[in-house]
């Protein structure tokens, strides 16, 4: 059967290289190349960009990224069993794909990338969240990437884009939305993956803003939101009392009712409180 890039269908690739999915590596593969091309399109115009792909596996999404015209893809894969399949893609797209066999939490990718850079990944849930937090909290802003297009389990995706008053609203939403535009661009049922996971998934697209949406000191904002959401059902005058005896006055000065709860406060409100605490 012909594919978009003339390479064998992914089922054949997996069979040929005996890529039996390993649970401990979170291996749930995407085998539909139309779907992987669709995910690649959510990342925006790739033609002038280097793409960092984390966890390419047998290369379904990698092929989608290359078919959609990525200038270059740097793929970081922990499982060495995937390297022969990725080498076939390298041969079909000469000079366009570099592969590093390593752990994305440890590899220094920056030396291998030229801006502008977009990040695209279908990663195990725990690794994805850890990398997202790292990518959102670089030493300096702007970060090395223009956008992040990442697959998460649906519940995590909802936490990233959540607005106040919902169950999913918390630190991850505030962190993501403070300096990024974040939206869910695609929902995927378990059957989209082989093997099918137990949960639904969603692709989140984050575009970096030039700076913070509202001014605030990052460390103070992080401390306040950690305290507030660690006791999310408590009134703020109680959950934040460790910030000092005048916390009620500070909350009021920031325009926040001391009896309000963390999940009711907008990003703008938390930033106002962080500025008040910095005085
Ligand atoms: N991108 C492929 C796809 O969409 O079909 C594979 C996705 S699968 C959910 C996750 C991939 O990430 C696997 O290939 C796995 O080996 C790889 N992986 C898991 N942990 C990793 C890590 N710490 N660093 C790099 N790759 C990792």
TrEMBL record:
So what does this thing catalyse?
adenosine(1518)/adenosine(1519) in 16S rRNA + 4 S-adenosyl-L-methionine = N(6)-dimethyladenosine(1518)/N(6)-dimethyladenosine(1519) in 16S rRNA + 4 S-adenosyl-L-homocysteine + 4 H(+)
Q: Which HAMAP family match?
A: 16SrRNA_methyltr_A
Q: Gene3D superfamilies in the record, alphabetically?
A: Ribosomal RNA adenine dimethylase-like, domain 2, Vaccinia Virus protein VP39
Cited function: Specifically dimethylates two adjacent adenosines (A1518 and A1519) in the loop of a conserved hairpin near the 3'-end of 16S rRNA in the 30S particle. May play a critical role in biogenesis of 30S subunits.
Q: Which GO terms describe its cellular component?
A: cytosol
SMART domains tied to this protein: rADc
Name the record gives this protein: Ribosomal RNA small subunit methyltransferase A
